[in-house]
Amino acid sequence: MPKKKEYDHKHLSTSQRIHIEKGLNDGLSFAAIARKLDKHPSTIAKEVKKYRTLQPREKDPKKPARCALFKECSLRFLCDKKDCVKMCKSCYDVKLLVSKCSYLCSEYREPQCASISKAPFVCNHCARQRTCNKEKAYYIAQNADQSSQELLVSCRQGINQAPADIAMLDTLISPLLAQGQSLAHIYAFHGHEIPCSRKTLYNYIDQGVFTAKNIDLRRKVRYKCKPRKTGTRVSLAAKEFPIGRTYEDFQKFIQENPDIPVVELDTVEGGRDNSTQAFLTIFFWNCTL
């Protein structure tokens, strides 16, 4: 019996999202992209559908698009001509180049492209991008990565406790702090009744969740507030630059193209002790010069 393949089940990284965008631009399927990234195809499909960027159609009130129900529509008598027995979709406006029912019918529906309602859910590889007047969707790695990071931050904010648990903790902790007991002492004796860590209790007091405030903590008012460190994330362009430019890519290219002459350019720097001198070396593989 073949073993079931196991995946890492980790969040997608920035470089992986860049590969997804490149694969969609090249017209690859979700399965082909998933094989390159060692992910399940459903992971790629959910990622694309969740973090795609929708681009609404530029609506022109003077020239609406053809209704999505045009083929099966059989409505009549939408206009003032009561003696007309033709279906309204057959009446054509020569100036606007659209059926008159498109701006007369109350059941008019905007047309939707089938490409964004089923796989691949985006228009990255569509050949009709310029001529299509329907709503479009694109997967952009930078936007997807930013939306994912914002979601990770927002879902970890706030208080992860039920209102009943907060009320119970307030009833337990605030009176003891008012009596002069420290939070460490309270946690040591009542830790089995508290459903969170001591650090979380300090955060709740600092956020004003309990009746007790920071001033009720004797040593807290003496501490100097330290500036919060902000993480320095590497830009998307910096992560995208090495793709296809590593030494492994160079070796792979040489193996696939053995007949192409190779020339190596290297910069030799001087000493590291405040030296600004350097020279360029050129090495020809075919003649070892």
From TrEMBL:
Domain (Transposase IS30-like HTH) ranges: 9-50
InterPro entries with a match to the protein in the record: IS30-like_HTH, Transposase-Integrase
GO BP field: transposition
Database matches in Pfam families: HTH_38 (PF13936)
GO cellular component terms, semicolon-separated: cytosol
Alphabetized GO MF terms: transposase activity
Annotated protein name in UniProt: Transposase IS30-like HTH domain-containing protein
Species of origin: Hungatella hathewayi
